[in-house]
Amino acid sequence: MEAYLAVAMTIRPILVIPDEKLRQQTELVTAFDAELQTLIEDMFETMYAAPGIGLAAPQIGVMKRLCVVDVSKRDDEEVPMALINPQITWSSEETSLYEEGCLSIPDYYEEVERPAKIRVSYQDRAGKAQEIEADGVLATCIQHEIDHLDGVLFIDHISKLKRDMVWKKYVKLLKRDGPQTYTPKPKMPPADDGDGVENLGEL
Ligand SMILES: [Zn+2]
Q1: Helix (H) or strand (E) holding 109
Q2: Residue 144 assigned to a binding site
Q3: Rounded to whole angstroms, how far apart are CA atoms 192 and 97?
Q4: Is 102 annotated as a binding residue?
Q5: What structural domains does the chain harbor?
Q6: Which residues bind Fe cation (predicted)?
């Protein structure tokens, strides 16, 4: 990591639905150059400031196939992971349920059922091929972020009724106030709502 310490980091503005970039496919990353390293550092900086546990490039308007995640608890040491060109190569039949949120759909949380375990192949920031198996919060977080890279949002995994409701709310906000794009500043994590299902915060 030492080689990247000199990179200046910038918190980037986060796009909010119904921004059409959040519905588009991303392009494979082919250049593992200084520009990519800066992008990765900016994505981490933006994710931590939000605060979030994951961020995909389209959420800051960059249509490239990469995301960053860090599911370590707030008080523990940060465990940052940058996944470049990630692909899910296997997922379990067993599922798990988490309450998800999304930095691009502020103030909305809903339970989502996803495969409990996944295997993911990806490239690290140096371009080296890697593979990981993930379960628990990490498995859900990575699936949420990879969805973003394919223009899919977590509300696509909930009922149409609920999805239409939240979508219409943001279409209305756009018409009334313009794009809801925001630049995060450090704030407190969302409070536990006491329903017994772990709230992941925003991804
Ligand atoms: Zn998200």
Answers
A1: strand 105-115
A2: yes
A3: 16
A4: yes
A5: 2-202 (3.90.45.10)
A6: 102, 144, 148
Q: Does 67 carry a binding-site annotation?
A: no
Alpha-carbon torsion 41, 148, 127, 78, what sign?
A: positive
Q: Give the active site residue among 45, 100, 145, 202.
A: 145
Q: How far is the CA of 101 from the centre of ligand 1 (A)?
A: 7
Interior angle at CA 108, CA 107 and CA 114, nearest 5: 140
What the block records as the tokens of 16 is 């909010």
Cβ within 8 Å of residue 122, ≥6 positions away: 83, 84, 85, 86, 87, 129, 130, 131, 132
How far apart are the CA of 55 and the centre of ligand 1, in A?
A: 7
- In tens, the pLDDT along 61-115 reads 999 999 999 998 766 677 899 999 999 999 999 999 999 999 999 999 999 999 9
Residue 145 annotated as catalytic: yes
Q: pTM for the complete prediction? A: 0.88
